[in-house]
Amino acid sequence: MIQAIKKCPECGSANLSHNKELGEFTCKSCGFVIEDRMIDFSQEWREFGHEQSEKRRRAGAPSTFTKFDRGMGTDIGQRSDVYQLQAKERNKYFRLRKWQHRISTAIERNLKLALAEMKRVSSYLKLPGAVEEEAARIYTLSVQNGLVRGRSMESVVAGALYAACRRHEIPRTLDELSDASGIDKKEIGRTYRFVTRSLSIRILPSNPIDYIPRFASSLKLTPATQSKAVDILEKAQKAELTSGRGPTGIAAASLYVSALMNNEKRTQREVADVAGVTEVTIRNRYKELLRELNLKDEVKKSMEDD
DNA sequence: AAGACGAAAGTGGTTGA
DNA sequence: TCAACAACTTTCGTCTT
Known about the structure:
- By secondary structure, this protein is mainly α.
- The protein contains 14 helices and 3 strands.
- It folds into 3 domains: 31 residues; 92 residues, Cyclin A, domain 1 (Orthogonal Bundle); 98 residues, Orthogonal Bundle (Cyclin A, domain 1), CATH 1.10.472.10.
- The longest helix has 19 residues.
- The chain binds a DNA duplex through helix 8 and helix 13.
């Protein structure tokens, strides 16, 4: 990041300077501050004992988007500091603390609320930390670009989470997000599209295979059936049966077929429920699979083996 | 009686003029 | 901006096990 900057964007001069203590990167010619949240890349020392920790420690917790100020803010008047002071001094810090609170802009307050909501939804869905981090980043960008205006904060949170899940290839369905956040499915879809488009976040169409493990475990299918379903999906993708179709429908249909072949039959309704599609869709995809991949004989054979 | 099947009409979003 | 369109859903009657 730092190395990338060679010229001042204001005056074009290459005469730049670092100020490590202020964390600033400035142009010596015109004084333009190019980067004011610079990260110190210098040698990291380990600490041994109190004396060294005073001298050597210079970094805090890792920067994270799941805190509204990326975990880098300074809170004035934390207890541990304040109680070492005289009463008069202490009052001064309480006053400063109050002001700090007032100064927090609307954006920051919105972020605080939103990130709390995000935490709630993502833990309900048991999403990994990396996804939550990504979602928080997307949300922060949305707020900064004024995309939340005119839409509920919750729906943007849900949209950001949905996008983050897809980027990490552990897609959740809109229904699941809707269930976890209490926002209407269509609303989430709308904000998701709006946000990703406005921020030009590129997201590949989700791969049906990514849905298999989760659906299979909800249906209590064996690993053998699961990998059979993946096989079928790969063949289906080669036969170009997957493009333009809803990925959940295809995933559900191939699971249904592989369950039949392994004598672990589940009803169309059961499969449809966990995949969040209707029986009709499964039927349509299922028939296509049988027809195009010539699986009919395979299914028949394994049924006769009973 | 439950599950599978298929037809027909409806829904929400995309696309192309 | 509007109409055509593809995918998917809802609903419902019929067939199969």
